[in-house]
Amino acid sequence: xxxxxxxxxxxxxPAAELARxxxxxxxxxxxVEEVCTADGLVIVHPNWWSQPxxxxxxxxxxxxxxxxxxxxxxxxxxxxxxEGLLRxxxxxxxxxxxxxQDKEVELYGDPLELxxxxxxxxxxxxxxxxRRTFSPVIVSTPAQREAWLQEVRDVVGAHFxxxxxQPAA
Length: 169
Hints:
By secondary structure, the protein is α/β, with parallel strands linked by helices. The chain has helices at residues 4-7, 26-37, 54-63, 101-108, 111-123, 142-159, and strands at residues 40-46, 70-74, 80-84, 90-96, 128-134. Strand 2 and strand 3 form a beta hairpin.
């Protein structure tokens, strides 16, 4: 479990970390090791401008590294294709938003779905992706938020029955 803000996670990818075999700061190396040995990933973030917050984007840049989470191999057509290296069997993403989900899809085509399912988890070879958006938060009631938390428990429990997560209220 990582609270990137509480950890003071630096989302900026320094040039020194660009090389595949770069020496990584201990905290980043720990994140990489945990992701590379995980059976599943649960990511929770708000929808900001139809994207994750910068700290989450920086986490993907620094932790889901070429040579660890994925690699590029020849595609036989003169180009390359990604080959996922993670052993993660399911990626679960929970988003909060103030735009109702049907409006997000209508207006923007749901960029977060594309990002997580096809770009991030797709590139890293994660075979199953489950994403839920809870919205609109701004007008939600305590009862609605409790129902959302129960849905989180149910989704995580369905994918990881031995370790039913109990999200904080």
